[in-house]
Amino acid sequence: MTIKYRAVHERNSWRKVNSHQSLESAISGNDGAKNLLLRKGRVGKKWDDYGAVRGVLVWEEGSSQGTALRLKPGSTTEVQTETVPVHKLEEHEKRGGLTDREIESCFL
């Protein structure tokens, strides 16, 4: 089981993180997507390195569904999540990034 975690930042459109051992830790763990988006803990310091986080995509290799996360528009404290087909995430993986418009399309 390989967990794919991709953060889309202002200055890095496809930052790969391969250290998560489960979907739960990739999304809600200390170094997970929610803490990154909320700028909490050690992972929150990535904002200084790469700029604002536009979104985070997390999926398990071989699965049919993944999760897209972002801050709810207009909020700095609420994380919005959406289920996304893995084949779409893998298309972005091949291209090595997402535009703001493509991130938005995950939440429509």
Q: How does the SSE layout of this entry go?
A:
Layout: E1 3-9, E2 15-17, H1 23-28, H2 33-37, H3 41-44, H4 46-50, E3 53-60, E4 65-71, E5 79-85, H5 86-95, H6 100-105
Antiparallel strand pairs: 1-2, 1-3, 3-4, 4-5
Walk me through this protein's architecture.
The protein has helices at 23-28, 33-37, 41-44, 46-50, 86-95, 100-105, and strands at 3-9, 15-17, 53-60, 65-71, 79-85. By secondary structure, the chain is of the alpha+beta class. The protein has one domain (3-105). A five-stranded antiparallel beta sheet has the order 2-1-3-4-5. A hairpin with a 5-residue loop joins strand 1 (3-9) and strand 2 (15-17). It starts with a strand and ends with a helix.
What are the key terms here?
five-stranded antiparallel sheet, 5 strands
Provide a quick synopsis of the model.
This protein is of the alpha+beta class and 108 residues long.
Order of adjacent strands in the largest pleated sheet:
2-1-3-4-5
Residue-averaged pLDDT, rounded? Answer: 94
How many strands, what sense, and barrel or not for the largest sheet? 5 strands, antiparallel
**Number of individual domains:** 1
Helix content: 25-40%
Strand content: 25-35%
Counted by DSSP, the helix tally is 6
